[in-house]
Every structure is written in C-alpha cells, then in structure tokens.
Amino acid sequence: MRGLWLCALALLLAAPVQAERVVAGLSQEAIAITTNFAGSEILIYGAVQRAAPPPGAEPLEVIVTVQGPSQPVTVRRKERRFGIWVNTDASQIDEAPSFYAVSTTAPLPQALSQTEDLRHRVTLDQAIRAVGTGRADQPLFNAALIRIRSDDGAYQLNEGAVRFREQTLFDTAVRLPANLTEGDYLTRIILTRGGVVVDLHEQVIPVRKVGLERWIYNLAHERPLIYGILSLVIAIAAGWMASAAFRYIRG
Amino acid sequence: MQIYLPIAEVSVNAFLLLGLGGIVGVLSGMFGVGGGFLMTPLLFFIGIPPAVAVATEANQIVASSFSGVLAHLKRKTVDLRMGTVLLIGGLVGAAVGVQIFAALTAIGQVDLLVKLCYVVFLGIIGGLMFFESLRAIRRARRPAGSVPLPRRHRGWIHALPFKMRFRTSGLYISVIPPLVVGVFVGVLAAIMGVGGGFIMVPAMIYLLGMPTKVVVGTSLFQIIFVTGFATLMHATTNYTVDMVLAVLLLVGGVIGAQIGAAIGVKLKAEQLRILLSIMVLLVCGKLAFDLLVTPDELYVIGFDGAGH
Questions:
Q1: Are A7 and A185 in contact (CB under 8 A)?
Q2: Which residue among A23, A229, A232, B76 is least enclosed by CB atoms within 10 Å?
Q3: What is the pLDDT of residues B243-296, one digit of tens each?
Q4: How far apart are the C-alpha atoms of B94 and B92, rounded to whole Å?
Q5: Of A35, A232, A239, the CB nearest to B228
Q6: What are residue B6's phi and psi, to 5 degrees?
Q7: Nearest to B236 among A33, A209, A224 (CB)
Q8: What's the DSSP call for residue A219?
Q9: Cα separation of A23 and B238, whole Å?
Q10: Does residue B122 surpass a pLDDT of 90?
Q11: Would you call A221 an interface residue with chain B, using a CB distance cutoff of 8 Å?
C-alpha cells in the first residue's frame, strides 16, 4: 500500500503541472475463488491532490468503475411458435463485460458529459460492443443483456455510492457476486469537474480460482478424458461409501 | 454453507444440494426409479446451467446405480447377455445423443429440446402409469377375477431375423428390438441426463416380454455403462461434468434412497405407482406450463457450455 502511494507521488512529481490529481487504493490486490467463495467486496478509497486552489465553481465528482473480462455473448429472443415459446432471433454481441459496476458521487449525466463518456467508455451502454450484427433492433438486445445481468447483480449502477469524507477524501465499496468469471478486473477511478475528466487512475485486480477449484478446472479442460474417468471413480466410491456407512449405522 | 462449483461456475448452498439429493433419493428409493428425471429439472430451477446439469446428472446416476447392480448380480437377477445387447445399442445412442446435444447448444435450442423431451416422455409415462394403477386399484376392490388380463401378443417381434437365445430371461428373440430400445434409451440418457429406466423397464416387459424379476437388474446393468459412457463423452466434448456437484448430490441421494426403500416396503404397489405417476405428471405439467405461458423475460443469454 505504501508503495502505491510512493508511486503516485513519483508520478505526481514527474507529470506536467495539473491542477487536480487522484490518488487511490484498493482493499484487495487480488481475489481468490476458493471452494467456499461466496462473493466479495472491494473497498476503494482515495484522495484528490491539488497544486492550486480549486478552479471554478463546478463541484468535483468521482466515478469508480470495476470491469470484468469481456467476452462475446449470444442473446436470444423467444417467440411463440406452434403455441410454445421458442428461441428464434439471436444476436452475437462482440464484447460484453462479464461484470461491470459504476459507482458515482452524483447522478451520471451530471458527473460525466456525453463526449467524455464516448471517449472513456464509462457507462454500460459504452462498455458493450455490438458492431456489425446487422440487426435494426440491436438496441433491444443490448438492453435485454443489461437488464438480465443487472438482475443478477453482474451489472450495477450505484449513483451516489461514492462518498466524500472530507473535501478531498472519498471511498466506496463494490460488491462482487459469487458467480464471478476468472480474469483481470480493471478498476478505474475517474475524477471529473463539470462533466469533464480531470484525472484517471487505473488498477487491475486479478481474480483467479485457487487450490482445489483451480486443479479441478484445469484437469477438466486440459485432460478431459482423465477428468471424466476420475469423476466416475470418485462418484462410485462416494456412493458406495455412503451406502456402506448407512448400513453400518443401521446395524 | 456456500460452495463454489468449479465447472458450473456458480456458488450454491451445499446443504441445499445435499437436501435435493436426499429428497430425490427418498423418492427413488420408494419407487425404485433412478430419479434423474426429477433431479435434472430441479437443477435447472436452482440455476445450474442446463448443459452442466445434464452431464453431471449422468455422472451421478452411474454412482447411484452401482450398489444396486451389485445387489442384483449377487441375486443373479441380471440377464448379462440381454444387458450386453441393450448396451451396444445404448453406447451408439449415447454417442449420437451427445453430438445432437452439442449441435443444439450451438444453435441455442438445447433448452427447448430437453424440456420438450421431458414434457413428452413424462406425460406419456405418467399418464399410462396413472390409468393403469387406477384400474389396478379398482380391480383390487371388486371381487377377484372379474376383469381377465388380455394375453399379450408379440407376433411381429417374433418374425424378425437374427434370433438369439437369452437364457436368463428364457427368451428366443431377434436382437433387433433390444438394439433399437438400447439406442433410443442411449440418446435419451445423453440428451435428458436420465438413466432411462422409466422407458427401459416398460419396454423390456411389454415389448421384449422379459420376466419381471430380471428387468430391474438388467436395466441397471445397462444404465451404468450407458450413463458412464455419456459422462465421458460430455466431459471430453462439452467439458460440463462438475465433480463437486455430483459428489454432493450423490451423498444426499444414497442416504435418501435407503430411507425411501424403508418407506416403500410399507406401501402397497398400486398406491406407490399412483403416487409416482402423480409426481411425474406434476413435473411434466410444470415444464409444459413454462413452455406455454408468456415468459417474464423474452430474452435469454446463450449458454456456450460452461467452458469458454
């Protein structure tokens, strides 16, 4: 943690003169998915450093985004055919983050202008990339993806969840659900004034399966035949032992 | 106690899985059925991806049938020759079924196929069983012998070529019907994540004319190898077998089955059958209802299998 601060300080000294900078830290450097993993929470905290008195009257806003690894996703739409509901239309979305959380100090439209959003891809609509699907109704599929993942807690918009402690100190907590996808999670802390990005801090949190979880997953994907045989042997042994134990208990 | 399933990539309560295994185990012990046809839809309901549910259930069935088949082998109520013929058909069917499953996953229709299969087969079997046991109960109430059983005639089956002698079953019939039954059940095992006992047992009795005492042991013998093969095929083509999930369901299931068997002894056969048929029809009705009624969410995110 001290290294981080020193780093930020060094950058501060080396960088050209800038009115306001953000320095931030995370409560976790990495997340390990263990057998009893039931979700996690990262605390993100930071401070605004000023070389001069605050410019203008516009309030300072902070936006924190946490983004999981992006993957292509297929979204399908159901239609009634022959009386039953069947998947008919499908849209291949090129890239959608498996997890995305945006936390802000103020309502997003107030904290970030449209142009800055396009440039830094902050909102969910910007994080999802669906180019060349050739569908006129593509926005419907994007909206459905956001809706379904929001219900699962995989996509979050927490307006007002970042709080200023003092004039320049802020913190927030982002809840990660239990069914996390492995990968590098990018955390961005964005400082804005009047909707314009003043400074940006990025940090990657690696999320990895560890221990038994890692071993099982690797075996299943790298040696599928051995894994399959092992699953059978373990299952048969477990079933046999459970019934033997039960018979023993009953006398 | 939450537990993270490494292949399904979801976190579920371990006691919920043990409990589900236990309840399905009690039912399967009571009725002498595998219980795969109940467990697989229940796994869908608690949020396990369908591809993982089907593959893992195949793995669980191998294990839960294993101790059953040992008991039948000891009692010599397994027709190994018939079992082997059914098995050859079953392996071909399972290989085909896994390929169908993978192809339908790619075009996003696997959910529909699995659910339709469930609705159709549960509906037919449940309906037949319900009316048959209702008749049996009525017959038991009336004075004996008032309704004579019609003699089964299996004329066309005896006319088929490639006859073979099955000594344990006391049959001399063509190998074609058992092979066809085997293929059919193999496909179902791979697609629906069931052992297929609920199709196999009636087929053996009514179609092949096997004596009832060897039917259960022989079907278990065949089911072990077919579901074992389906597990390996799913593990190598779809990477969807979750070892942790299988073991948890199994431990609950084995204990539940012992309790269920103890309860089953105390009930009459017709009562058991009518209860089972009602349960089968309920599961069928729930799945059919979901297909017919307008869903809350018209869009779904496609499963590309659990492996990325």
A1: no
A2: B76
A3: 889 988 888 888 887 788 777 777 777 777 788 888 888 888 888 888 887 777
A4: 6
A5: A232
A6: -65, -30
A7: A224
A8: H
A9: 45
A10: no
A11: yes
Cα separations in angstroms, B206 against B34, B145, B210: 20, 22, 8
Residue type, A218: N
Q: Report how far residue A242's alpha carbon sits from residue A229's, in angstroms, rounded to the nearest whole number.
A: 20
Contact A224 B235 (CB under 8 A): yes
For tokens 């990325």, the residue is: B308
DSSP string, A150-184: HHTTSEEEEET-SEESSSSEEEEEEEEPSSPPPEE
Judged by CB atoms closer than 8 Å, whether chains meet at B250 and A235 is answered as yes
User: Which residue carries 């409990």 as its tokens?
Assistant: B19
Q: Which residue of B has its CA nearest to A219?
A: B239
Q: Tokens at residue A180, please?
A: 């996390």
Report d(CA B97, CA B280) in Å as an integer. Answer: 23
> Which residues sit opposite A77 in a β-bridge?
A89, B299
* C-alpha to C-alpha distance for A205 and A224, rounded to whole angstroms: 29
Rounded distance between C-alpha atoms, residue B136 and residue B141, angstroms: 9
Contact A95/B at CB under 8 A? no
Strands A100-104 and A60-67, sheet pairing: antiparallel
The DSSP letter of residue A21 is E
d(CA B261, CA A125): 56
Residues A130, A131, A134: CA angle, nearest 5 degrees: 105
Convert the pLDDT of each residue in B44-99 to its tens digit. 878 888 788 888 988 888 888 887 787 778 888 888 888 899 899 999 998 898 88
CB B260 within 8 Å of CB B28: yes
Quote the pLDDT of residue A16: 47
- Please give the C-alpha separations between residue A214 and each of A33, A50, A220, B4, in angstroms, as whole numbers: 9, 45, 10, 11
Q: Which residue intervals of B194-211 are DSSP H helices? A: 197-202
pTM, two decimals, is 0.75
Distance CA A246, CA B228 (A): 25
What value of ipTM does the predicted structure carry?
0.76
pLDDT tens, position by position, B57-67: 888 888 888 87
Name A82's Cβ contacts closer than 8 Å, sequence gap at least 6: none
Distance from CA of A235 to the nearest CA of B (A): 5
